[in-house]
Write a structure and sequence with these properties.
The protein is an all-alpha fold. 78% of the residues lie in helices and 0% in strands. The protein is elongated and about 45 Å long.
């Protein structure tokens, strides 16, 4: 999951004109919200401190991927 979030953040960072941390946090929060809502609906696991830390790591990974992606953008 962490690698997937990094790749998604990287791809979003390469196509955006905004700041990398901003677009990364936006997409990270959207992705984590989808996972959180689906796990709550299907009662897969209860929300505890370890799952909150995991979700924060996923958001930070997306932010980091977007920052790297926006820095690797080719300039014409």
């Amino acid at each position: 999951m962490i690698l997937l979030y990094f790749i998604l953040g990287f791809k979003q960072g390469k196509v955006t004109q905004k700041k990398g941390w901003l677009i990364g946090s936006l997409w990270g929060i959207i992705f984590v919200s989808i996972i959180l809502i689906s796990s709550t609906i299907f009662c897969i696991n209860k929300i505890n401190i370890s799952s909150v830390i995991y979700y924060i790591i996923l958001i930070l990974t997306t932010i980091f991927g977007a920052i790297i992606g926006i820095n690797k953008k080719k300039e014409n």
